[in-house]
Design goal:
elongated; binds adenosine-5'-diphosphate; 6-stranded mixed β-sheet; 4-stranded antiparallel β-sheet; alpha/beta; binds magnesium ion
Length: about 575
């Protein structure tokens, strides 16, 4: 119940005025039912006493009853509408904004952390339960007030009936708690299967893996995995459904018996003329009314505790502490110095990069070369601040240490195209402007497309998902490069988004990149050495270590790792002359 209180207070704090408006709107629906019962009683009594001069009063009573019914319905509709669109939607928007803020603050490294990933997922679900908890509480409060009002009226007729009503509703509590417990277990075990199924389904419908799946026949394999998860899930469901069914059967038996007893009592009261026929009719309808409302209260009580508990994940996510520095980066700080930097990925033993020292000056161009797996991408992620070094120091500008810097502020000055990049199923224009949505420069979009050698219309929608055109791998890579170009920041990182582009073409693109960004600091990553020729400085990585540093000429003269690699690759560029 502590979770419930926290959830409700949270919701109330976000939209206090709307909450009050909502309760005011529901007020009439709490009072009118009692008046309706009273009018109903008078009407039935009047009609059962069949003298002709009472017809006129009866007609008036019918109209009053109808009027009350209509007013009640109108307020009911208004309050429900307001609850959904004016009240809950606001809470939801607020929570989504909070989650988004949190996710932005989570470092890349933490995304590798399975626990955190699950916390994110549960937090998203938790937000849904915050609204759910608030809505159930509203319903409980309404039902309680309604039952109290009607019971009070009922007791004024014959108090003893109230005991029976409670007796009838009591089994519901037992049923709901037992069923809710079973369902909670089901939910927990099924979420694992659900995740598996989602993943398999994604692979099966993914356009990127579709060809591979077809050729290698792996589609069947994934389909089988999906089916297995599905079967495990439905096996679980069936078992729990069976238990729930048994509990429900027992409950209906008990409820049936007590309903019967209560009915016999009011029938006896009527026969012995202790109550009028009008009171009998009111008792009959209020009996059903109170039973239904009490049942909902009980079942809501079972659900609210559970919903409150599930919404806790949302608060866990909000309370997640995000380590971030406080210092901002300015334009003139856009140079980077590494001193003995090492990094090991979580859960790995071997260092991905070890003991790396170098300096990248402002407006300098740097090429990082090395074979696959030598640590190039890791080094780039460390330079961009996406990863924090485990050992050593990264310094930006004149002595600003990475640990003290705001991640957002560092990223503000960076533009990047990575090896793995987004293929957004949006228009070409949107694919570029998302990198810098605050500016909207049509000329710049065209310039970027031209620079990346893309002959595409800006309005063209990409990807088959929304009926657009599918691009080739190389074209998608050019889109990523154009996006990076459009963003136009002080430091540009390009980490091999070019694997599907022909080596000579790649050389061409990188050369243009170095030329066009003379006033910027540029870092290019490549395992194709021709690209590195025009860089001011080259870092050669081998197995996570920095083995050689220098200009292209210096490295060739060294006759070491770089010279050997160059010899092997030179044939790719011979055509160039
Ligand atoms: P490169 O870009 O030169 O191909 P990477 O920097 O991607 O090299 O990888 C360097 C080493 O770090 C490799 O051994 C790789 O397996 C490992 N590595 C890369 N990314 C991750 C990751 N997210 N989690 C664990 N290990 C990783
Ligand atoms: Mg890489």
């Amino acid at each position: 119940m502590k979770d419930v209180r926290k959830t409700i207070l949270y919701a109330a704090k976000i939209v206090p005025v709307r909450m009050i408006v909502y309760f005011l709107l529901t007020l009439p629906t709490l009072v009118l039912p009692v008046f309706m019962l009273k009018v109903q009683k008078d009407l039935v009594d009047l009609v059962s006493d069949s003298s002709e001069d009472k017809i006129k009063s009866a007609v008036i009573l019918v109209f009053i009853l109808l009027g009350l019914y209509l007013v009640n319905k109108v307020f009911d509709m208004f309050s429900k509408d307001f609850m959904e669109f004016g009240y809950f939607r606001c809470i939801n928007l607020h929570m989504q904004r909070e989650i988004h803020k949190k996710m932005e603050g989570i470092s890349l490294e933490n995304y590798e952390n399975v626990e955190l990933f699950q916390l994110l997922e549960r937090g998203q679900n938790g937000a849904m339960y915050v609204v759910f908890t608030a809505s159930i509480l509203n319903l409980i409060v309404q039902a309680v007030v309604l039952v109290l009002m009607v019971s009070a009226y009922l007791c004024s007729i014959y108090p003893i009936l109230f005991i029976f009503i409670i007796f009838v509703a009591f089994p519901v509590l037992i049923e709901k708690i037992l069923v809710a417990k079973k369902k909670a277990v089901l939910l927990q075990t099924n979420s694992q299967f659900q995740r598996e199924m989602q993943y398999y389904k994604k692979i099966l419908s993914d356009t990127d893996s579709e060809k591979e799946l077809k050729v290698q026949g792996a589609g069947h394999y994934f389909y089988r995995l999906w089916k297995e998860s599905r079967e495990k899930q439905s096996g679980n469901e069936k078992k729990i459904e069976k238990d729930c069914f048994r509990i429900s059967c027992g409950y209906h038996l008990i409820q049936g018996i007590s309903h019967g007893i209560a009915f016999i009592i009011i029938l006896v009261l009527l026969i012995y003329k202790k109550i009028s026929i009008g009171e009998f009719s009111v008792l009959l309808s209020s009996f059903a009314f109170i039973t239904a409302n009490l049942s909902s209260i009980m079942s809501f009580m079972g659900e609210i505790a559970q919903a409150g508990e599930l919404s806790k994940s949302y608060f866990d996510l909000l309370e997640l502490e995000i380590e971030d520095g406080t210092e901002d980066i300015a334009k003139e700080d856009c140079e980077i110095c590494f001193q003995h930097v090492s990094y090991t990925y979580p859960g790995r033993e071997k260092e991905a990069v070890s003991d790396i020292s170098f300096t990248l000056k402002k407006q300098e161009s740097l090429a990082i070369v090395g074979v696959n797996g030598s640590g190039k991408s890791t080094l780039v992620k460390l330079m961009t601040g996406l990863l924090k070094p485990k050992e050593g120091i990264c310094i930006w500008g004149k002595g600003k240490k990475r640990d003290t810097l705001k991640e957002r502020s560092m990223l503000e000055h960076i533009s990047a195209a990575f090896q793995i990049f987004g293929k957004y199923k949006l228009s070409v224009r949107e694919n570029l402007i998302i990198s810098s949505p605050e500016k909207r420069e049509e000329d710049k979009i065209e310039e970027a497309l031209k620079w990346a050698d893309l002959d595409l219309k800006k309005e063209m929608v990409l990807g088959r998902e929304f009926g657009g055109e599918e691009l080739s791998g190389g074209q998608w890579q050019r889109i990523a490069l154009a996006r990076c170009y459009y963003r136009d920041r002080e430091i540009v990182f390009v980490d091999e988004p070019t694997s599907a582009i022909d080596p000579l073409e790649e050389l061409n693109i990188y050369q243009k990149l170095l030329e066009l960004t003379k006033d910027k600091t540029v870092v290019v990553v490549t395992h194709r050495l021709g690209v590195a020729k025009n860089a001011d400085k080259i870092l050669v990585l081998e197995d996570g270590k920095l083995v050689e540093t220098g200009t292209f000429e210096e490295l060739q003269k060294m006759n070491g790792v770089f010279a050997k690699m160059w010899e092997e690759q030179a044939k790719w560029y011979r055509r160039e002359g």
